[in-house]
Amino acid sequence: SPPDSFKSEGKEIKMARSAKTALVLCLDVGFSMSNSAPGQEPPFQQAKKVIQKFVQRQVFAENKDELGLVLFGSDNTKNNLAKDDQYQNISVHRQLMIPNFELLEEIQNDVHPGSQQADWLDALVVCMDLLQNETLGKKYERLNIVMLTDLNTPSSPDQLDIIIGNLKRAGITLQFFLPFPVDGGGSNPPHGGKALSREQQQGLEMTKQVMMSLDEEDGLEEVYTFSDAIEKLSVFKRVEKRPMAWPCTLTIGSSLAIKIVGYKAVCEERPRKSWSVVDAQTHQKDDIKRDVVYCLNDDEETEVQKDDTIQGYRYGSDIVPFSKVDQDQMKYKTDGKSFAVLGFTKQSMINRHQFVGTQVLKVFAPKDDEHAGVALSGLIRALDDLKMVAVVRYVYARNGNPQLGAAFPCIKEKYECLVYIQLPFMEDLRQYSFPSLENNKKYTPSEDQLSAVDSLIDSMMLVEEDKDGVKKDLFKVNHIPNPQYQRLFQCLHHRAVNPSAPLPPMDPWLTTALQRPLAVATRCQAPLEILKKKFPLKEVVKKKELKTSKELFGNSCLGTGRSNQIYLYSPSYITMQVKA
Amino acid sequence: MAQWNDYHHEDEDVDGEERDESGVDYKSTGRDSLVFLVDASKEMFIMGEDEEPSPFDMTMQCVRSVYTSKIISSDKDLVALVFYGTEQSKNPRNSFKHVYIYHDLDLPGARRVQDVDGLRGEKGAQVAGETMGSGNTNLGEALWCCSNLYSDIKLRLSHKRLMIFTCRDTPHGGDSERDRQARTKASDLKETGVVIDLMHLMKPGGFDVSLFFCDVVSPPEDEAELGLQMEPCGKLEDLQKRVRAKEMKKRSVARLNLCLGEGMNVAVGVYITALQARKPNAIKLYRDNNEPVRTKTRLYHTQTGSLLLPSDTKRVQVYAGRQIVMEKDEVDVIKKFSDPGLELIGFKPMERLKLHHHLRSAVFIYPEEEMVTGVWSACVNVFALCKYTRIRNSPPRFLALVPQKEEVDDGQAQIAAPGFHGIFLPYADDIRTLDTPQLPTASESQVDKMKEIVHKLRFKYRSDAFENPVLQQHYRNLEALALDLMAPEHIEDLTMPNVNMIDQRLGSLAQEFRDLVYPADYNPEGKTAPKRKPAEAAGGTEKKPKVEMSEDELRGHVQKGNLGKLTVPVLKDACKQFGVKVTGTKKQELIDALTAQLTK
Q: Where are the transmembrane segments (chain A) (predicted)?
């Protein structure tokens, strides 16, 4: 499978806090990288895109990983090993450093295909030398070299064993990115591409040899094609947050306690940074001050000092002065964290559409406490067998607001846990009744109409079985990265390196990822047409609704600067409405 | 409500847009209003069998609970309380006989709640007798009087409802002239958009709606609605349920098109049926007169002191030391993907919807066109997957549209509405990778013992059975302050486990389970690892002296780009030390602020 990331990004989140990676990108800029079949993007352009996408990811992740860039096949030579006619046309473009926008700009503007060729094994040695020299005396969790090449230069295999030995000794890992797949090459290229040259075939054999000797089993999995990599790297990867453990004690009455640890398992992820407001001319935050003034509700709008105001609350028509001190003294207090069982109820009594809150917790026993593990497992399995849930009082911390929630049993192949979700309070519910849809004299769908809908549903099923009876989901929402942040980072990146250009259009892959899968869209055409005929369609747009939305959105178009004059009046227009 | 977030300071930049999910905009839609028109005839004061409260008493309890719930959850709604069939009259100019306006159409407040309390119970009946008495009935006059209440209001009213509480099916005792007059006035009211409901109460011999009231009340929203066939209420609980279902106007958050395919748009209504009620924000009052003050926020230029328009500002984010600048409307438009609406992606078997796919309260989606009703009927064991764009510039979310069939209770009141629940589905970013511990599992005997415990503590969960103690306490406090009570009314905290009852029910089971799972020397309540104790608890151990960082040291960190290695408290101290103003408390924000200051 293609890489979801370069090795710099730890796949496990249990990495030590200081863990960082040193990584050298080793890019072949030799002249053969510019050759391509007509209509195809040259390998150089593809490889450059891979690097750009990766560096961009690293820049926005703002971690401590360090990155170097070595070009080979370049017109110039710049490396420590160059001597006489050795290690020529290999240029260390950037030493190990935390990547930044300058690097992105350099890659965009200064990295061009060269007119020379260099041995990729020589380049590998330069990278190893760079890594070893610059990481000396410092701690890194991983040293990695990423080789991007078409393997189209003759290499001398006599040094191969020594190089492999050195890689192993230094603990350096390798990844290869090639224009062709590692297994589909040979003399019969799969997609009508060019057949591999003799050099490439030889290079591929050596690549396999190196990778297999570093990791006998999975070595070849670290050899990727450019196109797969571009696709995968287009997704801005979220920065993994270390899950925060919430240790607590589950209690049932006063005499039964089980030690637990809760973790947020599902929660709407928000970007780490927010926008700050700056002066339009100077772009300085400090040039702007926000100032809040208080004024009386009289005709003169008399200003009063903040010190002359007190805190109060509305109680219906009453306005009740209620100082912070009094409030703190009189408010509801909780004395500490809690996960206390109130009782048990049938799972069927809990309606999932009544879930409230903004998170799902998974509750385990502490990892070093097998007794708690057994006790909690007893509860989980009992609940699972009985199809029941625990209704619990949950308090995050002292003086946190208490919640009511359900703890569901969850038994997976690899672990067991309780899944905690908040339930509503009486005040949170709105009991609306709606006109019946069945037993409705005005409209009941006919058999004919129902069968049309049935065939539409059949044609639009997103989960299907393949030949081997394996179910395949064509549209997994939980595999789609949040499009809001993908778009945000795309725009941030674009604006960072092109400050005066307008924002770019949406990435096509993102648009596609949010649409009905092509296979389904094609399949449902005919049933949709039939449905259209069976149901009379009417476009219901009520005047009132239009007006409301205009009122609602009216002022949002004012910020565009199209009409400053309207804007000037709008704040008082808003306050007038509030006053009314 | 407390969120996990509150404690990690992660949640400061919640988009305002997402919070306003309640979507009720009074500015553009006007106020809701509700008039309680209550029969005060002698029959209303007759106690039921088995000490059941009288119809009048039940009505007052209902009115009270509506008053308090309006104060908590819809504090802009207007409510009035009017009695008919009284001896005394009280209305403007006293032009209507036997009509007593107890409360004008206004916001309910503490005093009003207290007033209604005064009319409850035996003592309340006495008070009612003394102030209003029971006399002739002229419902026509009463309805006319109510129509004046509405017309006297200067505010724009969006929804007008009038509820008649009575236990008499022939209020005028066969006086056909008065019956006719009442019907005329009722139809006048209905013509001005007032919805009239009948909350008929138990009457010996049964309440016959067809004798008179069928012509007074509004026709049901839909012919299939069972409004009139409903049995009279004999119990307070039923009456409250019935009133609650009617008192709030269902208001859609949005009316959107559901797009099934190209050019196939059908209308649906989107409603909120569960939304966390929160303590309202405090308001600022002028110390001298306790009147609310208005706050005005101004932006001005620090150097020139001139006021700035929002167009004089831009937005920035800093990444890798570079400031990235955008216009305010660019920031907004980045969030736009498609026009507001629902877009059908396809269908999935029900089992693909996982329990833990929960991000926020679900929405309710009601079909407004036949084609959607068709889809609703045909959705069996499948859910529809839709892309949901709530308003312009709101990024898309995916909803699982889960069909719900209608359910009614014994009294023919709807307990589950027909339509779809829209469950918000998490994106990849929203699901966290957890490091799951490998632990031994329980044996059959251990599980069986726990089953006995579970069995002992079974109860029937009802979603409306638990009040929010934080909110209730807050409002009791305000009530006490508004009414100058000595102490707020006591609240019962239903979220607290009844430990005594649990212990009693479990008896020896708890010990037996403990013996089965824990070794003798194991203390499940003890600390696993010695925790750092707060200074006081540790017997006044000295606070670790703060290590001040030299400017050079800090500059060194900035240049090497490894400020991230420092802890948040150290960064905060450094900010203080070098006078760096920080708006947020996130680590990245601290780092950015320091970097900006020291690279100037």
A: none
